[in-house]
Amino acid sequence: MTIRVLIADDQVMIRDGLAALLSSDPGIEVIGQAGNGREAVEMARRLDPDVIVMDIRMPEMDGLAATAELVGEPAADADPAGARPKVLVLTTFDLDEYVYEALGSGASGFLLKDASAADLVNGVRIVAAGDALLAPSITRRLIGDFARRRRHQRPSPKATAALTPRELDVLRLIARGLSNAEIAGELVLAEQTVKTHVGHVLTKLALRDRTQAVVYAYENGLVG
């Protein structure tokens, strides 16, 4: 299936460059470009993209606010069956507060603008598939920060009560960054079985995606 992508960045040259790069992949179609967060929200609701490549610092509405509006809690009159786009945050600013805000706003991935073209294309594919993506340097710091803050914390009983032992194993491996195929190999399970367990974990813990599952696991002391 073709991945439909919307690009949001306030610099025309960057938007055009990203569009040309992504459009060169036969499995990706760039369906629109937005110059600010407000325009991104309006275009996303009209064009229904699969993935939004979102800058952070933009006029009128920044990328974090736009992400929260598009991927956060649905409006009261929203169609509950309606699929919401995945957001891949792309920025020049390697700052921790942006990472936490982006994840809290509902972003599925976070890449720096110095990433390679291959990394960007791969990032779009990863978040479109429902997986989590963080730049390697950001992942190391994020995990290190959680580890320092939670080093002596025991797993929260409330966090584990809803999950079966196997689902708990799967959540811990998600938090380690393993894909479904890698988890299947680790636990000696069929990949489809792992996919089912992942779905149960997200549903039981009311999490949007694997990115939130990673954060949840570290915040609740399930991974050290």
SSE diagram, text form:
Blueprint: E1 3-8, H1 12-23, E2 28-34, H2 37-47, E3 51-54, H3 63-71, E4 86-91, H4 96-105, E5 109-112, H5 117-128, E6 133-134, H6 136-150, H7 157-161, H8 165-175, H9 180-187, H10 191-204, H11 210-219
Parallel strand pairs: 1-2, 1-3, 3-4, 4-5, 5-6
Helix pairs in contact: 2-3, 3-4, 8-10, 8-11, 9-10
What's a quick, concise take on this entry?
Helices cover 52% and strands 13% of the residues. It is of the alpha/beta class and 224 residues long. About 4% of the residues have low confidence.
Describe the structure.
With 224 residues, this protein is an alpha/beta fold. It is 52% helix and 13% strand. It contains eleven helices and six strands. The chain has helices spanning 12-23, 37-47, 63-71, 96-105, 117-128, 136-150, 157-161, 165-175, 180-187, 191-204, 210-219; strands at residues 3-8, 28-34, 51-54, 86-91, 109-112, 133-134. The protein has a six-stranded parallel sheet, sandwiched between helices. Helix 3 links the parallel strand 3 (51-54) and strand 4 (86-91). Helix 2 packs parallel to helix 3, helix 3 (63-71) runs parallel beside helix 4 (96-105) and helix 8 (165-175) crosses helix 11 (210-219). The radius of gyration is 18 Å and the shape is globular.
